[in-house]
Amino acid sequence: MSRQLTFAVVGHVDHGKTSLVRALTGMETDRLAEEKRRGLTIELGFAYLETPEGVIDFVDAPGHESFVRTMISGASGAAAALLVVDVTQGIQEQTREHLYICRLLGIDRYVVALTKIDRADEEQIATARNNTLELCAREQQSVAQIVPVSSEMGTGVDAVRHALIEVLRETPCTPCGKQPFLPIDRVFVIDGTGVVVTGTLSRGAINTGDEASIWPAGQDCVVRQIEVNGHPATTALPGMRTAISLRGRKVDNLVRGMTLCTASYDRPARQLQVSVAVRDRGCKLRSGDSVRVLFGTTSRIAKIKVVGGHLLQPGESGFMRILFEEPVLARFGQRFVLRRLSPAQTLGGGQILDPCADDRSFLEPRLHEYLCALHSGGLEDALQIMVEAAWPEGVLVSDIEVAYGLQPGATTNVINGAACLGCGGRVYSRCDCDQLEERIEDTINAFHKNSPTLVSMPLNKLMNIIGSDHDRALVALMLKRLQEKSRIVINGAEVMARGFDPFSGLEAPQRERLGKLEAVLLEAGLSPPHIEEISHDLALDGKLLRMLVDLGRIVVLGKAGQQKNIYFHRDALLQASGLLEASFGLSEPFSMSDARKALGVSRKYALPLLEYFDRLGMTHRAGDVRRLIPKKSPV
What we know:
The protein is α+β, with helices and mostly antiparallel strands. Strands 7, 8, 9, 11, 12, 13, 15 and 16 form an eight-stranded antiparallel sheet that branches. A hairpin with a 2-residue loop joins strand 29 and strand 30. Helix 7 (367-375) runs antiparallel to helix 8 (379-389).
């Protein structure tokens, strides 16, 4: 893949940024008539340089203090910076301001151009070099090269170009995901083409024909055409300066600060949770303050709330919640800058740790711990804290993907690494799930203890007890896990503890009567007596009889003649199955009369037996005849 890297061209006003870009690329970045008339950059300017190593994009940012917001908008999309210092003037206020802002935006690759050397002596050049190195050291920024240059004379321009190419060569390519994220820094209309938006693609790839959305406008659109550095393209990749023409309803009211993204993936929110570092030049951040928040190309006024306190002093770092009146669209890890409203001043900045923090009240008791984990890069630890705090509701997988900017495969890895359990599109704490398993098992054991004559517990009863506090899909998964661990037995709509012996809770006379009942039914075989008669003779109540039925030792068949139900011993059904197979095999058809003879019983018993076998799928009826079906058991 061809390399592409965007440089923010920064520095004090009138230090020669635009002239240097023109000398490097042959392109004019001042587009406005007022800019040309005043010789002052007001809006962002764009240019590019094609090299054998790849493409270098330039975002020429205005240097005047009145346009710092515009500068931040341009620098936010850059991965490196070209810092321009006029050797005749040296370090100025906006030199310091721009370098500090670049640090806040996470830019850590620099080339320094010492301009206008044709107007200075060696001492001035040396002083400018030393002062620049000292400033960069204070801002904890490393400089790839410092190159003296005269844009007017052409001296040093090639050296600057080579220094930029070296940074390009050493910069790793940005991983390409599926969901595009393009902060829009310019919008215009071309006759015959329509609305065009431009920006630096910071995430994902975008292709012609793709469906996308524009936030915060909430407008759906389709990508008609793509240009990368003035050339038509079918795909734009992360890091590329991109122009995209759009088709869709109401796309003619777009402005800088909006974002082109994937509607099904990205989610606007009114609250962001962030890490922040306060500037050490007399700045403070206090809960309740209104500030201007700048990230990507977005610039919005919001209130702040310091996490774990009310005030951050100059030079301090901490965590904050940023609260907007209207939803904004941000992404995990995105850098931001805070500015005082009046008088305008850069207060600090940091990194967005949770871009979808509207519904995070459940995290409040562990919020600081959660943000610390995110800040240190421990996504697994942060997710573990989140799902534990969200118990028993769990966390949607889609929320995790959006909050942490993860692709589906990476999401699975984070979930597994966090010792979490996925179920029904949600993620739960594995530790809490283990405790839920224990509660389910305890509930089943309590049922056995309180209802000793019932072999199993109805699943719907268990669900009503446990499911009132937990998602039923999760309870079903815990039951499955318990069954796989051989701790319970699920039989249709019933569940019992494995190894539960209902006879252990019976008194000796009760066990004796049940044994006699089984003996009577075994002896009767396929012509059992009425159960009412046996129960009366043995003084059996319905609960004891139900126990044998639930255990499968006795099978109840439907009506036959005047008798409500017929109770067969399970061994009698096995006997009937064997007699039919011995008489007719698996292919010979047989009638009701044939079955009666083979079984040696009257129609009163043969009919419910055959109908039972039909229901089980052991026999197949076609008209008045049946055939046995192989590998089917009657019990």
